[in-house]
Amino acid sequence: MFSGIIEQMAVVTAIEHEQDLIHLTLRAPFARELQTDQSVAHNGVCLTVVRLDTAAQTYTVTAMRETLECSNLSDLRVGDEVNVERSMQMGGRLDGHIVQGHVDTTARCTRIEEQGGSYEYTFEYESTADMVHRGYFTVDKGSVAVNGVSLTVCRPDRGTFSVCIIPYTYANTNFHSIQVGTRVNLEFDILGKYIARYQSAMAAQPTPQPQGLR
Question: pLDDT digits over 170-180, tens only?
């Protein structure tokens, strides 16, 4: 479980392909504090630490085919910056929103506007009736995780939404590397997904028929 508050940016130092797997090695200051089997969110994707090199301050994680198909991890190249967040500690503050690290889909940036120090980004993603029924949509003033960053939605529409970034977020996440056309990871609000799923399940239930008099 994560909060969408990015701790640091890790730098990709090596990429190894093995059949349908990709092993990513990243350098991050907190690598010395990690242990194998721990979970770290990378651009919002929860991955397990499988190898450590504390002297080099690097660690390695593995992404399988399903993860690569629904995220932007396959776009990464050596030298890229990745938003990273370690899992939440019980009893800690939830400064963002509940983020599972299970990316739902990707979106592409369609517009970036500088607004007197802050930045507004607009993203577009594929939206179908099935995705809406599964809760894959945004609502005004709701929460969404973009590359693992917990953000508030502005002006949502069918398949598009905007978010506003303060200077601190711009400087301390890989939002400063996003350009028009860049693909990002999206995780929609888990509470919205539960509600949408419940409503879909209830709508599929047969309507009870009144019992006739005997």
Answer: 999 999 999 99
